[in-house]
Description:
The complex is a heterodimer. Chain A is mainly α. Helices cover 35% and strands 4% of the residues of chain A. Chain A has 3 helices and 2 strands; from the N terminus they run αααββ. In chain A, strands 1-2 form a two-stranded antiparallel sheet. In chain A, a hairpin with a 2-residue loop joins β1 (85-86) and β2. The longest helix of chain A has 18 residues, at 23-40. Chain A is flat. In chain B, α9 links the parallel β7 (263-267) and β8. In chain B, α3 crosses α17, α6 (159-166) packs parallel to α7 (183-189) and α10 packs across α12. Chain B has an 11-stranded mixed sheet, with helices on both faces. Chain B has 17 helices and 11 strands. Chain B has helices at residues 3-7, 11-19, 25-43, 51-66, 109-116, 159-166, 183-189, 223-233, 277-292, 305-323, 341-353, 356-369, 374-396, 421-426, 432-436, 466-477, 486-497, and strands spanning 46-49, 78-82, 120-125, 172-177, 192-195, 215-220, 263-267, 296-300, 401-405, 441-448, 454-460. Chains A and B meet through α1 and α2 of A and α10, α11, α12 and α13 of B.
Amino acid sequence: MAHIIDDETIEYVGILAKLELDDDEKEAAKKDMGRMLDYIDKLNELDTDGVEPMSHVFPVYNVFREDVVINGDDRDQILKNAPESKDGAFKVPKTVE
Amino acid sequence: MTASEILSLTAVQLGKKIKEGEVTSPEAVKAVLGQIKAMEPELNSYVTIDEEGALKQAEEIQKRIESGELTGPLAGVPAAVKDNICMEGLKTTCSSKILSDFVPTYNAKAVENLKQAGAVIIGKTNMDEFAMGSTTETSAFGVTRNPWNPEHVPGGSSGGSCAAVAAAECFFALGSDTGGSIRQPASFCGVTGLKPTYGTISRYGLIAYGSSLDQIGPVAKDVTDCAAILEVLASHDGMDSTSVQREDYEFTRYLTGEVKGLKVGIPADYMGEGLEPEVKEAVLKAAKVLEEKGAVVETFDLGMVEYAIPAYYVIASAEASSNLSRFDGVKYGYRAKEYTGLHGMYKKSRSEGFGPEVKRRIMLGSFVLSSGYYDAYYLKALKTKALIKKAFDEAFSKYDVILGPAAPTTAPRLGESLSDPLKMYLGDIYTISVNLAGLPGLSVPFGTDEKGLPIGVQLIADCFQEKNILRAGFAVEQSRTYKMPSLAAKAMREKEEK
């Protein structure tokens, strides 16, 4: 079955992905995604009833440690990578009116 | 020793000569920097070269070797690190515009382990953007070219690491492998690449792509080097919750050449349609070598092979869409110049900062995780992953090693692959299932095709059984001599003549 990705879906996925695509990119993405999903549909040939989904090959556990500070004060170094900072904090556009 | 004599050595050979006082670490670094100057205009293996830092490190390390403080096999040896692995104070870009100015404030655990062993890190290697790609053509900093023929790709995503090792621009390099990103470029560049069992090398400081699949691993000139580097890199690390406490951390002891009684299976499903005849021939020849040395070789049906790629692209894209959400123009990286509001800033920064392949995978990943599609795609892929693991479990109840090709073809020409992503993805068919099942895989160069491009054979073992592929890989390697691309050898000769 061929997947047709409509404008609404691409718009919605763009919101989830936090990506802004121009019209050409949107058209390309519709075609790309449709084609990928057609290919991924191959998995439907498999009978997976009763199969446990496997996220990790080995069991994953929470790793705990004592709640003590182990890193030094590297705030200024870290902030050097920020596009904008002010008074020792990351600066972002106004979020609440 | 002359520069070209130094550059012809493997990492372990060089480490030994430094220890014996025949050559010093600064001399080795200067030889490598000379080779880099000669090769880089053609190859572009590196994103960042830390000439000054490397020489300074080498002077220090040389003193510590002479004082007897550093005694390991890699002490003083110049190495390179893929540009998705963090190094304190050195730009780490993931070959993406969005991270083009990012300078980490800490070292990845793998880098820390290398430094402790006295390796000299000379720079960061080029890659496909965020390790998404099979050709190193999606880098924001230009393509890397194959040292065997610059009209061809080096493979990817660790294409810079593999090209650099092949062209003697370093003695070994770190790569990362999510779906074949060490083994496939190693095969295209005629070098040896190892992806260890998931959890063996800490991912702390590796910029994540598909966290359940990512593993760091060595790229080197031979199996001996790979085993020695793995011994240095492998450790249990509390900073990576998926790091595994292994029973064995010794790998070089299995390099005996002894394979008598080793049970080797060749999956019939790896040897059929789509495989280039010359690659197939190389695999059969490697099988013959193992057989002559006493291994038992059989063909068998592995099963599930055709389902690995669709399952992989669902899982890897889903994890990528989540992992890459951290790039939002706030804490690090690129921020768009013009935008309206916070969300506009996020969207603009990401859209201008990411390249097309990365956007493609983030979109697909967001889709398969969205409500209404999660069960049909994401859960289905995780169930498929369980079945793939089961197929391998059955195979490893009969065989110690699975032998097959690393890639269906030798290196394609530049520009051939990106036009059809689906076709490019199909090139990962022999490597991808190894990541899904968490297994160790080794790519060993074994001959060239009629165009003179290297062919790699792949050896796969059960989880934690690196010893079996190292044993078999070492035996296969003994039957051929290491060849350097003529381009790299020529650059070395010309320097000498001057």
